[in-house]
Design brief:
elongated, 15% strand, 6-stranded antiparallel sheet, alpha+beta, 15 helices
Length: 578
């Protein structure tokens, strides 16, 4: 408010002075005011905004994840966030263990809302955004002022010199650094002087003054491309940190998706192995029923050995399932899920089995635009280009245009002196050019060469990253195609193994005797069918994981259909930090 009032007073007084000036003075004054307007102001608006900004800002507003305490075990126990979607948990009546029915979308919501790794990186863009404001603030208008009282009493041996004197000075004004490199100031000062000189007309006098000064560089430190370099670099650094945040979010999302599909596979393998064990036990029971007919002790032991071996494999697969469940629970970072040590996760989302074919050039084009590593390399190159432009300008001589204007008044009373100021009775102007150039100019020339080398390095880094991404894109497309072929092959193998076992079972019903050789063939056929089921499940899961890996290398993980909605839901979780 004070600044606005002072600005209006200064402008009003300046206009009053100019109203009574000569045409030549008016022209010069108009030129100076035009230079101020041409200096302009800097903007902190960003040219492009990533859609992930809303999610990032919501994490920052929510603040750090809440913990029960900062001491002891409570430090490791997160508390539930407001508005967090509840997990679907029920108690199994037979085992007494909690069972979590988990969809892939629910897993992603929990992870995106709670992940400490994402939370840490989420602050980087907001910190960089404040640096943009700091860079723009260099061009803010500054208000200044001073009050000074000076009282002197000096011995004198001349009547033409003052022995006693005092002066009072009050000054206020505005100054600003412009985006063209200009520096201007507009000030109003009021001076009251008194001294005891004998031969003077006014012993007490008032001297109001309005002054304007401006310095405009013409070569070094001149124009927007140099003076706005700090603002533009701050904006690019913000985008770099935002891309880094997106990269971390995509990484965690890909880990969740991969862990979920591995859980699907592990659960399916346990189911298949349990079915194989049940089938083996059923075969053993049939042998025991034929003990009095043709089943020998050798055949019984053979079946029993196969059952024990398959039971041991089942124990191993169940342990693997629990390990994958714990890994997924860790990624979810859900306070309630973390306490369910014996929880059983039941995956509810089926993996995709529809083949998707990718064109290498089209996929590479997408990667060149959205891959976070390429994006960061491109932004780093833009920073290097700006530095080269600034360094090239800075090695030029300093040539500045300097101009000033001053209106003053002088009288025994403030009112009379103020009238002289408003009438423009005493106007002074000055215009000049200053030149400065260091001999040899080695420092700025070396800086220019250094910036050019950094730009060349940034180009090389971008080309290197692009080549690596191109290789990885091609490799992951081949991985997707391989898994598509594997799914078809394993389907055929499963069908063949099922037909073979069915034929053996039909043969068993009409055989006269049950030989050890036939029993071994049947047990092997059961194992072959189970292995075919496991292989098909693995091929399907590997295909889905390969799709996620391809999306990650192209920078499109967050665009996958089952991640878009969880990202929006996670952004709405929690409340602003207190």
């Amino acid at each position: 408010m004070i600044m606005k009032q002072l600005s209006s007073v200064l402008v009003e007084r300046a206009l009053c002075v100019l109203r009574f000036c000569s045409p030549a003075r008016l022209v010069l004054s108009a030129v100076m005011l035009t230079m101020i307007g041409f200096a302009g102001c800097a903007s902190q608006e960003l040219a492009r905004v990533d859609p992930i900004v809303g999610y990032q800002e919501s994490l920052v507003r929510r603040g750090p994840q809440r913990r029960a305490s900062l001491e002891g075990l409570e430090l490791m126990r997160p508390t539930a966030e407001p508005n967090m979607p509840a997990l679907n948990v029920r108690m199994d009546t037979e085992s007494g263990k909690p069972v979590i029915s988990l969809r892939l979308e629910d897993a992603l919501v929990q992870a995106l809302a709670n992940s400490p790794e994402i939370q840490v990186v989420s602050y980087d863009p907001s910190i960089s955004k404040e640096e943009i404001t700091m860079a723009v603030a260099d061009f803010d208008v500054t208000i200044f002022g001073r009050l000074n009282y000076d009282d002197q009493d000096n011995p004198q041996n001349s009547i033409f010199l003052a022995g006693q004197s005092n002066s009072r000075i009050a000054e206020s004004g505005l100054k600003q650094r412009g985006i063209t490199g200009s520096e201007w100031s507009l000030a109003y000062a009021l001076v009251r002087n008194w001294d005891d000189r004998a031969f003077q007309e006014l012993s007490t006098r008032y001297e109001p003054m309005i002054s304007f000064q401006i310095r405009q560089p013409l070569l070094r430190d001149a124009w927007q491309d140099v003076n706005l370099a700090g603002v533009e670099i701050s904006k690019l650094n913000y985008l770099i940190t935002l891309v880094g945040f997106r990269q971390k979010t995509e990484q965690i999302s890909a880990e969740i998706v991969t862990a979920y599909w591995l859980l699907v596979q592990a659960a399916r393998v346990v189911e298949i192995q349990r079915a194989l064990l049940d089938e083996t036990v059923e075969t053993m029971k049939k042998l025991q029923g034929r003990r009095s007919i043709d089943a020998t002790e050798v055949q019984l032991k053979q079946a029993e050995s196969a059952a024990k071996e398959r039971q041991a494999v089942l124990v191993e697969e169940e342990k693997n399932l629990r390990d994958i469940q714990d890994a997924l629970l860790r990624l979810l970072s859900n306070p309630r899920a973390g306490m369910l040590d014996d929880a059983v996760i039941v995956p509810m989302t089926e993996p995709q089995v529809q083949p998707v074919l990718f064109d290498f050039e089209d996929t590479l084009e997408v990667a060149s635009r959205y891959n976070p590593i390429i994006q960061q390399a491109k932004l780093a190159l833009e920073v290097a280009k700006i530095n080269v432009t600034v360094a090239e300008r800075q090695k030029m001589p300093r040539l500045d245009l300097v101009a000033s204007a001053r209106a003053t008044g002088l009288d025994r009373g403030y009112g009379e002196a103020g009238d002289q100021l408003r009438n423009g009775d005493f106007m002074s102007y000055a215009v000049g050019i200053t030149l400065e150039y260091p001999l040899g100019n080695r420092q700025r020339t070396a800086e220019f060469r250094r910036r050019r080398l950094e730009r060349s390095k940034a180009y090389s880094a971008l080309y290197n990253v692009s080549d690596q991404i191109a290789f990885q894109v091609k490799e992951r497309i081949r991985l997707v195609q391989k898994n598509i072929e594997q799914m078809e092959i394993q389907r055929q193998a499963l069908e063949t193994a099922g037909v073979y076992l069915h034929a053996l079972e039909n043969t068993e019903a009409v055989r006269a005797t049950l030989t050890p050789e036939f029993l071994l063939v049947k047990l092997q056929a059961q194992q072959t069918l189970a292995n075919a089921r496991k292989s098909l499940s693995k091929a399907i899961v590997d295909y889905n994981i390969a799709l996620t890996a391809l999306a990650q290398i192209t920078g499109t993980v967050l665009d996958v259909k089952y991640i878009r909605t969880p990202l929006n839901v996670a952004a709405a979780v929690g409340a602003p930090a207190q």
